[in-house]
Amino acid sequence: MELKQAQKQVNDWIKEYGVRYFSELTNLAVLMEETGELARLFARKYGEQSFKKETDLKEVDLRIKEELADIFFVLLCLSNQTGTDLEEELSKSLIKKTQRDANRHNTNPKLNS
Questions:
Q1: Which end of the chain is more exposed for a tag (fewer CB within 10 A), N or C?
Q2: What does the alpha-carbon distance between residue 59 and residue 109 come to, in Å, rounded to a whole number?
Q3: Mean pLDDT by 10 residues, the chain (113 residues)
Q4: Strand (E) positions, 36-105?
Q5: Largest CA distance in the chain
Q6: How far apart are CA 2 and CA 11, in angstroms?
Q7: pLDDT, tens only, 75-104
Q8: CB of 67 within 8 A of CB of 38?
C-alpha cells in the first residue's frame, strides 16, 4: 500500500466508523500516548528496565507491532487533518537528508567502530 492509499483508507474509516476526526490537538495527545506505550515496551525489551512479572516475549513483540500501527494510524489522521501529503513530504525529507548527510554518517567513528 502506498502512503496516499493509507491516508485515504484512514480517512474513509473515520467517515464510516469514527464519526469525525478528533481535534488536531487531541490527536497529537493520542500520538504522544501511543508513543509512550511503545517506549515503555522498548525500555523493557531493549533497555535496562525489567518487566514487573514474567512476560511472554512473543506477546511483547505483538504489542510492539500493534503500537507501531497505532502510531502510524494517528500520524495519518494528523496528516489528513493538516492537508499533508505524506508521500510527497517523505520524498522531500529523504532528498534533504541525502544532501545534508551524504558523508556525515559514513565518516562518523561512533557508527563505524
A1: C
A2: 37
A3: 97 97 98 98 96 92 98 98 97 96 91 85
A4: none
A5: 52
A6: 14
A7: 999 999 999 999 999 999 999 999 999 899
A8: yes
C-alpha cell at 65: 507491532
43 and 49 Cβ atoms separated by less than 8 Å: yes
Amino acid at 93: S
Question: Within 13 A of 103's CA, how many CA atoms are on the CB side?
Answer: 1
Give buried/exposed letters for 74-93 (b at 16+ CB in 10 A, else e): bbbbbbbbeeeebeeeeeee
| Cell, residue 82 | 493538516
Can you give the pTM of this predicted structure? Answer: 0.90
